[in-house]
Write a structure and sequence with these properties.
- This protein is of the alpha/beta class.
- Helix content is 29%, strand content 16%.
- It has helices spanning 51-63, 82-90, 111-117, 131-138, 144-156, 177-184, 213-223, 288-292, 297-309, 315-323, 337-340, and strands at residues 14-18, 68-72, 97-102, 121-125, 163-168, 190-195, 226-229, 239-243, 249-253, 266-269, 274-276, 285-286.
- A twelve-stranded mixed β-sheet has the order 7-8-9-6-5-4-3-2-1-10-11-12.
- α1 (51-63) runs parallel beside α2 (82-90).
């Protein structure tokens, strides 16, 4: 096993695997319906990595230092028989954790099977508790009761603590922050409030739409009182806090206002087998081609190590610097989040 490090000495430790670029919702910050409409061309089946190919690449990534894997999409539970892939990945000796990020619409019926297959944890995206706001955020009629049942089922199956991610967008659902916190206070789930990010090229991001983590934290602190918690591990994406009255933990992901690029250890594998070294990347490196052409594990490890060792990505930090500058951005269009996972 090697420990691949990039040019900023950041180790490769986490792999996020998109198993599909399809989703049954049309959230404006990820897959706006104006772009991802009925005629949108998704990745053809023959270009998608098979479960065997994903498992093999995961074993190769483990040789390069990866210890934690997260399955994403699109909506990963749209990929049939995902439990089989979970079992294959959980069986890899050097992988310590297999997690899943989902919109929760199909989770209730599958939580037990996923846990039995070896899934460690689940994160559910949920941006409000009001039907009108959910419809505005998700671009579809949102099955709230089914998602809440999925969250409960995941907790009952031992896939916890379940994390509930709320993307907060000014003027759309920012008035729902206290309501969301109130609902999950005293429960086992951990709500994490996420700043609206400029991922991809189609979500219409504007700085004025961002509600900063500091603003949200101040609301919650005034209402209940908050106390900081230490990070659970290096490179953690969320800052951790707890309610002063002991009613549980919450988190904040502040990629816009307080970038955490300096400790980023995450690589991303698209559904068609491209390696991306940043959520905000403009291009990736094809792994499917060499894999199907007969490359050995050693050759794939070398390729991954070479890509990672040349990595200099620090988009969020550079964006923050640029925001203070009068120089216009000349960045190329970024890859869509639905293609490489959140």
């Amino acid at each position: 096993m090697i420990q691949a490090r990039d040019r900023l000495a950041r180790p490769l430790g986490d792999l996020r695997i998109s198993v599909t670029d399809r989703c049954n919702l049309r959230c404006g910050y990820c897959m706006p319906s104006e772009v991802f409409g009925p005629g949108f061309a998704y990745t053809p089946a023959d270009r998608m990595l098979s479960f065997d190919e994903i498992a093999r690449l995961c074993r190769v990534f483990a040789q390069a230092g990866v210890r934690r894997v997260r399955l994403t999409g699109g909506e990963p539970l749209l990929r049939p028989h995902l439990e089989l892939l979970v079992a294959m990945l959980a069986d890899i000796e050097d992988i310590d954790e297999v997690a899943l990020t989902t919109n929760g619409t199909m989770l209730a019926a599958r939580a037990q099977a996923l846990a039995a297959a070896g899934l460690s944890r689940v994160t559910v995206s949920l941006d409000a508790l009001r039907a009108d706001v959910l419809a505005a955020m998700s671009g579809r009629e949102f099955p709230l009761a089914r998602v809440l049942a999925g969250i409960t089922a995941a907790a009952d199956a031992g896939l916890g603590p379940v994390k509930v991610n709320m993307v907060v967008r000014r003027g759309v659902n920012d008035h729902c922050v206290l309501e969301m916190a109130e609902f999950f206070r005293g429960r086992s789930e951990i709500v994490r409030f996420i700043e609206f990010m400029d991922v991809g090229a189609t979500n219409g991001w504007q700085p004025a739409d961002v509600v900063t983590a500091a603003e949200i934290r101040e609301q919650l602190d005034r209402r209940w009182g908050l106390e900081p918690l230490a990070p659970s591990r290096a490179g953690e994406v969320a800052t951790r806090w707890r309610y002063a009255d002991g009613a549980g933990e919450i988190g904040f992901i502040h990629s816009v206002s307080e970038p955490f690029c300096g400790q980023c250890s995450r690589a991303r594998l698209s559904a068609d087998g491209a390696l991306y070294t940043c959520l905000f990347a403009t291009s990736g490196t094809d792994l499917r081609g060499p894999l199907r052409a007969g490359a050995t594990d050693a050759e794939l490890v070398q390729l991954i190590g070479r890509v990672w060792s040349n990595r200099t990505d620090r988009y969020s930090a550079e964006r923050a610097t640029e925001a203070r500058s009068t120089m216009p951005s000349t960045a190329a269009p970024k890859v869509e989040m639905s293609y490489i996972g959140g």
